[in-house]
Amino acid sequence: MMTPLSLLQQLRTGYRAVKDALPWLDATVRGDESPAFPRFARSPKIAGVTAAVAGTQRGTAAPELLRYDPSVSPPLEELAKQLAAMERGGPALIVLHTDVALQSIPPLAHSHPALKIVVESGPRKILYFLAELEALLASCPNVFLSTYNVCNWLGLERLCGNGLGKKLLFGSHAPAYAPDAAMGPLVMSRLSWQEKCDIAGNNLRRLLGLPQEPAQEVPFAAPQPFIIDAHGHNLTPGAGSPYDFPAPDEDMRPDEWTDFMDSISVEQLITIPARSLWFDEAGRTGSHVLREHAPGRFRYMEVFDPNHGEERLRMIEASLRDPGCAGIKIHPSFHKTAADEDAYGPVYEMASRHNKPILTHSWEMSAHNPVQELSHPRRFHRHLQRYPRTRLVLGHAGGRPSTFDDVVRLCRDYTRVAVDVAGDYFDSGLIEALISEIGSQKVLFASDVDWIDPRCMLAAVLGSSLSDPDALMLLRDNALRVYG
Q1: What is this structure's pTM?
Q2: What is d(CA 419, CA 408) in angstroms, rounded to the nearest whole number?
Q3: What tens digit of pLDDT does each residue of 395-411 get?
Q4: In Å, how far are 96, 101, 127, 129, 479 from 104, measured between CA atoms?
Q5: What is the C-alpha to C-alpha distance for residues 75 and 68, in angstroms, rounded to an integer?
Q6: How far is Cα 153 from Cα 140, in angstroms, rounded to an integer?
Q7: Which of 414, 427, 424 is nearest to 446 (CA)?
Q8: Around Cβ 393, how many Cβ atoms within 10 Å?
Q9: What domain range includes position 307?
């Protein structure tokens, strides 16, 4: 029987073989943006296309793509002459979804039908707009989508299944962001080899009038499951979704869940059922169908909402006696109650008494989403000082690089604090930087499925510079220790 370490080595080898075989061409290289973790960031080893900024002299003299930047570019309506020239064989135009509203793109595309327009993710999540992007690509023949940060779970499969695979252009936003995070959902997908090659680079080559690059097929096959995903979500089949975007598990059968997990070697998922965040159901109830189908492959967490304090505490107390309950989830931002408020004291005490951890949302200050400040890492010192025996996991590892120093300080000050890397924190070198500063025993693999595609962060780990033993600690061993 293979050991977890040998399974990891097999998975890494298989992932790298497919990655090395695909004909990559990056549509969204950003050489002018510096990585947040320069000591650990890895330079991409794939080709990218040149780009200039629309309406300026900045950039290359003969760009293959033209970026629209509202901070320096004239308004789009003032670029009419340049857009007309671009229709006559000039470069394609890249627009960020945070700079140009998606509903503004169809009029632009229809008034310039020969202009090739590439939509790219801006600095805020584009995953919320999957349905709108799908409609945009379907209605506008000259609009394409960079895959950079399109990290919806099974998002590539959804778009390809709806006949939009030829509209997808691989993008990584390297060197600031990890190329593997963008590569993973494609490399480990079950799309055909032709679809993989198209998205990896040949769609972009066709767009630019370049010859397609043939590639010998290398299939991806995951070894038997061994990974523990320490932070995810699920929807109860047929119960409807509280999300503002489509999630594939709205009507997903339990066997489809385990089939996907098998396809990327995930043995177990610790889930926070989505409706438990809204107090619509208990974690025990919301995970029941999955746990009944595959005992041992799913565990759940109960959510503590301080706005329903006493009622929640009674429910959590009962569930913590259940071996299937991995711990308690708090989300100060979602529940609009700061992490250092008195209301959280009883749940810290309860977690310590039952020797089960608390998993918390953690994030940076956010100008466009100010409630995130309620989950800033600095706010957790108060209760950790009062309850030093409580284990705390900072979900999302603080969310963005601006919190990194505070995350490190918290993990160094309290021996029972760890982090997980769930979410869309794809900065190049993040994982190596965390392990360098807080140690390999304090970082847990997690995905934030059913929002985020687990293959994004898994690929970031597989493609990292971590040794196999350190990678195994992150992917499995640390979760076994922290969550029992």
Answers
A1: 0.96
A2: 10
A3: 999 999 999 999 999 99
A4: 12, 5, 18, 14, 45
A5: 9
A6: 24
A7: 424
A8: 27
A9: 227-483
